[in-house]
Amino acid sequence: MNFELLASMMCADYGHLEREVIALEQGGIDSFHIDIMDGRYVPNFAMSLNDMRYIAKATKKPLDVHLMIEHPNNRIHLFLDHLRKGDTVYIHPEAEYHPSTTLKSIIDAGMIPGIAINPGTSVETVMEMLRIVDKVLVMSVNPGNAGQMYLPYVGEKITKLLSMKEDMGFEIYWDGACSADKIIDFAPKGVKGFVLGTTLLFEKTKTYGETLENIRLLKF
C-alpha cells in the first residue's frame, strides 16, 4: 500500500540535528515535517526559521512546513525564500484575515499549498479553501505540543474529507498521536500521509530504519 511517512522534527534530538536528519533519510523517511510556532497562535514555541533553513540544506528530501503562526501573510516570504519548489507549506485559515492571499503567495513561489485543520475547525468553515489547496493536514490533537491524546471525533471529519477529495483535488495527511492502528485504519481509506512523532518514530527503542520498515510492513 502506498502512503507517505513524515518525520515530525520537533520531536528530534536538537543537540544532534544533522545526525538525526541523516539517520532519518537513510532510514527511508519520505519527508521532513517542520512545526513553526510563534507562541501566539499556539501557546508554545517549536522550531525556528533557522532550523528550517538548516534542514533544507541538509537534505534533498521534501520539506513539509506547518506554520502555526498568526497572520502568516506578513512573514510568508521569510519562509518561501529558503524553501525549494515542491516543498509544502501549510497555514491555518483561522490565523489569517484572507487565507487565500497567503495561499496564492505559496503557489506563486512554486510550493505546494496546504491548510491545517484543528480538531475544533469544521470542514464547512474551510470549504472554499479546499478547491485552492493540494493538501489538507488534519490535526487529530490540539496543536502546540507533542505527545497529546487522540481526539476520536476527528475520525468523522476525515471520513467527510475523504468523500470530497477526489472532486476537489486534494490529499489528506494525518498529524498528531499517530499510532500503528491509525495507519492501519485510515491508509486503506485514502489518507495519503502520516506525520510520525513520539508515538511511533521517536520512541527510541529501534533505529529509524527498523521503525519505518515495520510501519511499511503493517498488515492491512
Quickly describe the structure.
Helices cover 30% and strands 19% of the residues. The protein has 8 helices and 8 strands; from the N terminus they run βαβαβαβαββααβαβα.
Topology of this protein?
Layout: E1 4-8, H1 17-27, E2 31-37, H2 49-58, E3 63-68, H3 76-80, E4 88-91, H4 99-108, E5 112-117, E6 135-139, H5 154-162, H6 165-168, E7 171-175, H7 180-186, E8 193-196, H8 208-216
Parallel strand pairs: 1-2, 1-8, 2-3, 3-4, 4-5, 5-6, 6-7, 7-8
Keywords for this entry:
220 residues; 19% strand; alpha/beta; eight-stranded parallel beta barrel
Word description of this protein:
This protein has 220 residues and is an alpha/beta fold. Helix content is 30%, strand content 19%. The protein is globular.
CA-based gyration radius: 16 Å
Q: Order of strands across the biggest sheet?
A: 1-2-3-4-5-6-7-8
| Total strand segments | 8
Based on Cα principal axes, name the global outline.
Answer: globular
SSE order, as H and E?
A: EHEHEHEHEEHHEHEH
- Summed over residues and divided by their number, the pLDDT gives a mean of 93
| Helix/strand structural class | alpha/beta
The total of helices stands at: 8
Measured by DSSP, the beta-strand proportion falls in 15-25%
Sheet bearing the most strands, described? 8 strands, parallel, barrel
Helix content: 25-40%
Unreliable stretches (pLDDT < 50, length at least 5) are: none
Distance between the termini: 8 Å
